[in-house]
Specification:
Length: 473
C-alpha cells in the first residue's frame, strides 16, 4: 500500500473512532435505559469528536469529567475550595468555561455541520448534573481538583533531545544582553515621529472597593470592570519607521485569507487574577497588534507576520495599580514595572529566569504611557506623559473576539488547536526548540504563553509574579 495513502486512511479511522464509539454508547443506552452519566459522556464525546478541527486551546478539558474545563487560576483555587459554597462556585466556574469554549467551537464549524451536534440544552443539563454530583461527593470532588491541573506548555522530550542543559548558558547570555540594553534606556524625547494612540473618551467614573467572592477572588460588576479598564487604559506611542508600526486588528477577508486592518486600531481587553502573599488581586490585560515585525536585515530570525504587546495591570482592593508587567504575544521579553507608590519590592529568585524590573515615576492611580520602538516594537519606556500633538483613538474590544472572528464560512478563530496563530512562526524556533517551548516566537492565545527559556513559567500562572515580588514587613 502507498505509505501516504495508508497514513491518510489511518487518520480518517482515528478521527472517526470517537464518533463511532459515541454512537455505540448512545445506542446501547437507548436499549438498556442509560444512566445520566453514560448518556452525558456519550454526548460530550460526540461533540468533541465533531469539533476536533475547531478545538479552542484557552482552557483545559477535564477528560474524566465531561462538561468541565479549567485554567491555571481555577487549578490553583481547587484545593482551597473547602466550604460548600466555595466548592459549588468553583465547579460552576469550570462549567462556565466549558459552556463558553463549546459555544466557540460549535460556532467556528461551517453552518452545514452544526445541525448534527448534540443539543445545547441537553449538554447544559449534563453540566448541571456534573456540578450537583461533584458538590455532593467529596471523593469525586478531590479527583476533579486533581484533574483540573493544567498541563505544562513545555515539551520535556524536546529538552531531553535538545540537550537543554548545554543550551541554558546560551539562553542566559542572550536574556542578560537584552536586559542590559533595556535597563540602559533613557526617557525618549517627544517629537513628531512618534505616532500616538489614545483610549476612547469616557467620563470619569468612581469605582467602589472590590469585593471578594466565596473563592477569595476580587470581583467587579460589568460596569465597574469597564470603568477600571477605562481608568487604566494606556496611551501608546510608537516611533514610526514603516506601515508595520501602526496599530490595527487582524481579521478575515471575503476570500477567507487573514488580513490586517490598520484603519481599525483596537485595544483588546481581558481580565484575570494573580495571587501575591496569599491574597488574590484582579488583573486587567490589554493587548494590541501590529501587522508584522519586519526584518531588520537579511536573515533576521525574529521577523514575521503579526507582532504586538500585552500590558497587564494588577490592582489593589481600591482599583489602583499595584504593579504592571508587559510581554510580547509570543511569550517573550517579559518585564515588570512598579508604580512609584507600590509597596512591593522586586527580588530575583535563585534558579528562575532573570526578569527586567523598573520602578516608575507615576502613581498607581494614573494610566501609563507606553513608548515603543519602531520595527521590533520593543517597550522602551513607561511614564505618564501625554502627547502634545493630535493623537489617533483606538477602540476597545474583548480579547475573546479573536477566538470567533467573522469569516466567509461563518466564523473562525485567529488561533489553531494548539493556541498558536498560524503563519506567525519565526526562524528563531530552530535555535530555541531545546527550551521545550512550542514554536518559540509564534504569536499565542491567552493561556498558552510559556514565558521563560530558563526553567518553566506561564504568564497566566497566578503565582508567577509572586516569585519576583514581595512586600516588606
Amino acid at each position: 500500500m502507498n505509505i501516504a495513502r495508508g497514513w491518510g486512511l489511518h487518520r480518517v479511522a482515528t478521527r472517526a473512532l470517537p464518533v463511532a464509539l459515541g454512537l455505540l454508547v448512545l445506542g446501547a443506552c437507548a436499549s438498556r435505559g442509560p444512566t445520566p452519566d453514560a448518556a452525558c459522556a456519550a454526548s460530550f464525546a460526540a461533540l468533541h469528536a465533531a469539533t476536533a478541527t475547531t478545538r479552542d486551546a484557552q482552557y483545559h478539558r477535564l477528560d474524566d469529567f465531561p462538561g468541565l474545563r479549567s485554567d491555571r487560576v481555577l487549578a490553583a483555587l481547587g484545593e482551597h475550595a473547602r466550604g460548600p459554597a466555595a466548592r459549588r462556585l468553583w465547579l460552576q466556574r469550570l462549567a462556565a468555561h466549558d459552556r463558553e469554549a463549546s459555544a466557540i467551537e460549535r460556532g467556528n464549524l461551517p453552518p452545514a455541520r452544526r445541525h448534527r451536534l448534540p443539543a445545547v440544552a441537553g449538554l447544559e443539563h449534563c453540566r448541571q448534573q456534573q456540578v450537583e454530583r461533584l458538590s455532593r461527593d467529596p471523593a469525586a470532588f478531590r479527583q476533579a481538583v486533581r484533574a483540573a491541573q493544567v498541563p505544562s506548555d513545555y515539551r520535556r522530550w524536546a529538552r531531553a533531545l535538545g540537550l537543554y542543559p548545554l543550551a541554558k548558558p546560551f539562553y542566559r547570555r542572550a536574556i542578560a544582553a537584552w536586559q542590559r540594553e533595556a535597563a540602559a534606556q533613557q526617557a525618549p524625547a517627544d517629537h513628531a515621529d512618534w505616532l500616538s494612540y489614545r483610549p476612547p473618551t469616557a467620563p470619569p467614573v468612581s469605582v467602589a472597593r472590590l469585593q471578594e467572592d466565596a473563592l477569595g477572588l476580587p470581583q467587579a460588576e460589568p460596569t465597574q470592570l469597564a470603568a477600571l479598564f477605562a481608568r487604566h487604559a494606556p496611551e501608546i506611542r510608537v516611533a514610526q519607521r514603516s506601515a508595520a508600526d501602526r496599530l490595527g486588528s487582524p481579521r478575515f477577508a471575503r476570500s477567507g485569507e487573514r488580513r490586517f486592518d490598520a484603519q481599525d486600531p483596537v485595544l483588546y481587553r481581558h481580565h484575570g487574577w494573580s495571587r501575591l502573599h496569599g491574597r488574590w488581586h484582579l488583573q486587567l490585560i490589554y493587548q494590541f497588534w501590529f501587522r508584522e515585525r519586519p526584518p531588520a536585515g537579511p536573515g533576521d530570525i525574529y521577523a514575521g507576520v503579526l507582532d504586538g504587546l500585552l500590558w497587564r495591570v494588577t490592582l489593589d482592593a481600591d482599583g489602583d495599580a499595584l504593579l504592571y508587567d508587559a510581554i510580547h504575544p509570543c511569550g517573550c521579553w517579559h518585564a515588570l514595572f512598579l508604580p512609584a507608590d507600590s509597596p512591593l519590592q522586586f527580588r530575583q529568585p535563585a534558579g528562575e529566569e532573570q526578569r527586567l524590573a523598573r520602578r516608575l515615576s507615576l502613581p498607581g492611580s494614573q494610566p501609563a504611557t507606553l513608548w515603543l520602538r519602531g520595527g521590533d516594537h520593543a517597550l522602551l519606556w513607561v511614564d505618564a506623559r501625554r502627547a502634545s500633538r493630535p493623537a489617533s483613538r483606538y477602540r476597545f474590544a474583548d480579547l475573546d473576539v479573536l477566538r470567533q472572528l467573522a469569516h466567509p464560512d461563518g466564523q473562525r478563530s485567529l488561533y489553531d488547536q494548539r493556541g498558536l496563530v498560524p503563519g506567525s512562526q519565526r526562524l528563531e524556533r530552530w535555535l530555541l526548540w531545546p527550551s521545550g517551548v512550542v514554536s518559540p516566537g509564534a504569536m499565542r492565545q491567552w493561556g498558552r504563553h510559556a514565558s521563560a527559556f530558563i526553567g518553566e513559567a506561564h504568564l497566566d500562572d497566578p503565582d508567577l509574579l509572586g516569585r519576583y515580588l514581595y512586600q516588606p514587613e
